Amino acid sequence: MDKRKNARLPLRLSGQLSLEYGEHLETETEDVSLGGARVEAVPSHAHRQHCVLTLFAEGPEVFSITIDAMVVHQDEHGCGIEFHSMDANDFELFREFIERQGRDHGELQKEIEAGNVPKLKDWTEL
Fold first, then answer.
1. Which of the listed CATH numbers 3.40.640.10, 3.40.50.2000, 2.40.10.220, 2.60.200.30 matches domain 14-114?
2. 112 vs 8, 17, 94, 101, 122, CA distance in Å?
3. What is the mean pLDDT of the chain?
4. Burial of 42 (0-12, 13-18, 19+ CB in 10 A)
């Protein structure tokens, strides 16, 4: 049963998943949305752990997007990451990147207006 509130985009992005207890794993997404991602399998103890997911994307320039998240689903094929918060500037870069990958601007805007996005913060003030 699909519990996502956002439309998925099958997209492979390299990344790093930093788990709550100091473990750092190289990973790759299977799909992404404005609210989460499915990534390669992680250790079974990672379920329900808070984590930081850093995704590396290419656009007019190469950039990284850092997301405070949680591992919310896990099976033998991968795990689901729910985005909790991210820097507002990172979110804008991410939204634009997803739009360039073929997502309809109107549909993205509906998801944003419905609040199906991570909490946006100014991480420079933290």
1. 2.40.10.220
2. 14, 25, 13, 17, 18
3. 88
4. buried
